[in-house]
Amino acid sequence: MKRMTLAMCALLVCTLPAAHADEPVPAVQVKGIADPEMHSYRSVAAGLDAFDAHRALAPHATLRFRMRHAEGAPANAGDGLKLRLASDDGSFQENVPIDAAGLLTVARNQAAYDADATFILNQKNGLYMGHPEVRTAGLPDNVRRLGDLRLECRVTIAIVKDQMPFLAKAAINSLLLTSDWCGKKGFHFDVPAPRAGVRAVLRDGERSRPLETHGWKVTVPIGDTGWPDDALVQIDEGAPEDLTRTADGTPRTAP
Predict the structure, then answer these.
(1) What is the rounded average pLDDT for all residues in the chain?
(2) Max alpha carbon distance in the chain (Å)?
(3) Is 210 part of a structural domain of the chain?
(4) What predicted TM-score, i.e. pTM, was given to this entire model?
(5) How many domains is the chain built from?
(6) What number is the average pLDDT over the span 176-194?
(7) Buried b vs exposed e over 115-149: b needs ≥16 C-beta within 10 Å?
């Protein structure tokens, strides 16, 4: 069995174009250039801490992790994935269930933390990866709330930072002029899409903005404070033009 990848990258590279005072704030891109060979429970616990610390962005959301093929396609029951947490010395071992949709929940576990347990997948290394997914219940699968994505970014970056060397983090902090990368004005976050080649639009009431897509990724301007947390990212040409509310107040697609 091989160790799995449970965050988007270990080493990061940032592009921050120069801008003058009278020019719009440039986009800030942070892209992964390498996936780590393994991820410890302690790194994922840093993501759980970030989720708790920034819950105000998505107060009714839940955090799970979604397994995907390395090229970006979502995993499912047909992939036969099995995951466990285990320590190198054999003092700790526990199965982590993955549901039919490729989703799993990582709970707080002090014993796993103390044993420095590692996630181990029953597949060859490099074939699958996992990523945090923050979702508010009631939205269609192809609709993402912007506040959820802002929180998802903080969870992801917390996991990544725990894996990074100190000097690499310090260099990026200096480049961005902040340690809160996801909160940087102009920051763009790449969100996994349900399939490759999608179209996506950011909507808030009557306003809309088309989003860039690349393969299995949708690039979302989470650092643009002109868009509120309740703005919606609608993915694919089949995404609903509008959302209405059901009798109990939960969102549903308009007919």
Answers:
(1) 81
(2) 60
(3) no
(4) 0.81
(5) 1
(6) 90
(7) bebbbbbebeeebbbbbbbbbbebbbebbbbbbbb
